[in-house]
Amino acid sequence: MRGYEMVQILKGKEITMEDVEKEIAYRKETNAFSNAPQNDVFMNMTLNELLRVKEMWNV
Asked: What string of pLDDT tens digits covers the 59 residues of the chain?
């Protein structure tokens, strides 16, 4: 799935950019895998996908 499509899905679930940034920080600090997210909305999303979402948020 492309970053833009993921952004639209997350926005539909009332996720904010702050939520995305918190999850990115959590993954970087703990080396958490996609099956162990801090927020269940990000289940099965890789760190690279989260970074892409962050890039595409305001597009």
From this structure: 678 899 999 999 999 999 999 999 999 999 988 999 999 999 999 999 999 999 999 87
With 0.85 as the threshold, say if the pTM is over it. Answer: yes
Q: Which amino acid is at 21?
A: E
Measured torsion, CA atoms of residues 9, 17, 1, 13, in degrees rounded to the nearest 10:
-20
**Tokens representing residue 31 in the block:** 């080396």
Burial group, residue 34, by CB count within 10 angstroms (0-12, 13-18, 19+):
middle
